[in-house]
Design brief:
By secondary structure, this protein is of the alpha/beta class. The protein has 10 helices and 11 strands.
C-alpha cells in the first residue's frame, strides 16, 4: 500500500501529485491512501466521504469524514517523520519504506529536479517489496506520460466536481460565450508570483488586458470572449470594451469554469494546467505577455 504522509500544498500541485500516485497504485496492483489531501477533499464528492482519500466506497458522512481525516493526517505526518528519522539511522518500521520527492522551484522544468518516477525502478521495486510505502513531497510523476494518459478517464471521474459546481461553471461559461466562436479562460495568478522565482511570472493587470486585446484582434473581436479567474480582486475598469466575465471567485468553481472554456491561458501554474488536463482542452502558458498566441500555440496537457 502507498500512503501519502506530507501535507497537501496548492490545489493544482496536490491534484497532479495525487493523480500520478493513484495511477501508479492502479498500475502496480495496490492502493494509494492520502489522508493528507486535507481540505481539498471537500471539493470532490468521491473524496468527501472517504477519510483515507483512497478511492473507497462512501464510508462516513462528510462532516465526520473531515474530522477523521484531520486525525489521520496528523498521524500520517508523524509516521513519515518517524520513518525518516529511523532511515537516517539505517533502521525502519517493519515492512515500511519512505520515498521523498522535492524540487528547486514550484515550476516544472526540463531538468525535472527532485522528480520521483513512479512507473520506473526503484519506485516500482519498493512498491513490490514493502508492505507500506510512505511517500512525501509534491513531485511524483510518470515518466511515460502516454501511459499516464491512459488512466485519465478514471482519474477525471475520481476528481469529478459536484453537480452544483458543474452546473454553475457551465452556466457561467454559456453566459460568457454570448455566441462567440472561442471562449478563452484566463488564469491570473499574482499574489505569490510577485516574489516567486524572482517575479519572472508576475504580470501587471495591464499585461493581461493587452494580451486579451491582442487575442481579440488576432482571432476576431466578434469571435472571442473570455472568462477571467484571479487570486486577487479584479480591477474595476479592467479590459473595458472586451467581452469578458469574472470567474466565481472560489478555487473549486474557478478551476471548473476554466475547464468549461475552449482554451486556457495563464502563467506557468498547475492550477490552470489541471483545469485544462481534466477537461481535455488545450493550454497556453504565458512566458511573455507581449506575445499573442495563435490557436496552434495551445497544447494538450499530458500531466
Amino acid at each position: 500500500m502507498i500512503i501519502g504522509v506530507s501535507r497537501a500544498n496548492r490545489l493544482g500541485n496536490a491534484l497532479f501529485n495525487h493523480a500520478h500516485l493513484m495511477a501508479a497504485a492502479w498500475e502496480h496492483g495496490t492502493r494509494y491512501a492520502n489522508p493528507c489531501f486535507g481540505d481539498n477533499a471537500d471539493l470532490f464528492p468521491r473524496l468527501r466521504n472517504d477519510p483515507f482519500c483512497a478511492d473507497l466506497a462512501r464510508l462516513l458522512p462528510a462532516r465526520a469524514a473531515t474530522s477523521v481525516r484531520g486525525l489521520l493526517e496528523r498521524g500520517a505526518f508523524r509516521l513519515g517523520k518517524e520513518q525518516a528519522a529511523l532511515e537516517a539511522q539505517g533502521r525502519s518500521l517493519p515492512g515500511t519504506r519512505l520515498v521523498a520527492s522535492g524540487w528547486d522551484s514550484t515550476l516544472e522544468t526540463e531538468a525535472r529536479a527532485g522528480v520521483v518516477l513512479v512507473d520506473r525502478e526503484p519506485f516500482r521495486g519498493l512498491v513490490r517489496s514493502s508492505r507500506f510505502l510512505l511517500v512525501s513531497g509534491p513531485l511524483f510523476r510518470f515518466e511515460d506520460r502516454a501511459r499516464f494518459l491512459e488512466w485519465r478517464p478514471r482519474i477525471t471521474e475520481y476528481f469529478r466536481p459536484s453537480e452544483a459546481v458543474r452546473r454553475r461553471s457551465s452556466e457561467l461559461a454559456a453566459g460568457a460565450r454570448q455566441g462567440a466562436r472561442w471562449l478563452v479562460g484566463v488564469h491570473v495568478r499574482r499574489r505569490d508570483y510577485e516574489e516567486f522565482v524572482g517575479g519572472g511570472y508576475f504580470y501587471e493587470w495591464q499585461a493581461y488586458e493587452e494580451l486579451m486585446r491582442g487575442i481579440a484582434r488576432a482571432w476576431g473581436e466578434d469571435r472571442v470572449a473570455f472568462v477571467v479567474t484571479s487570486d486577487e480582486p479584479i480591477p474595476e475598469h479592467f479590459a473595458a470594451g472586451l467581452r469578458w466575465t469574472p470567474g466565481p471567485g472560489d478555487c473549486g468553481t474557478d478551476i471548473a469554469s476554466l475547464g468549461a472554456c475552449d482554451r486556457v491561458i495563464g502563467p506557468p501554474s498547475t492550477f490552470s494546467a489541471w483545469a485544462a488536463f481534466a477537461a481535455g482542452i488545450p493550454l497556453y502558458r504565458i512566458m511573455d505577455p507581449a506575445q499573442v498566441p495563435a490557436l496552434d500555440d495551445f497544447v494538450q496537457v499530458d500531466g
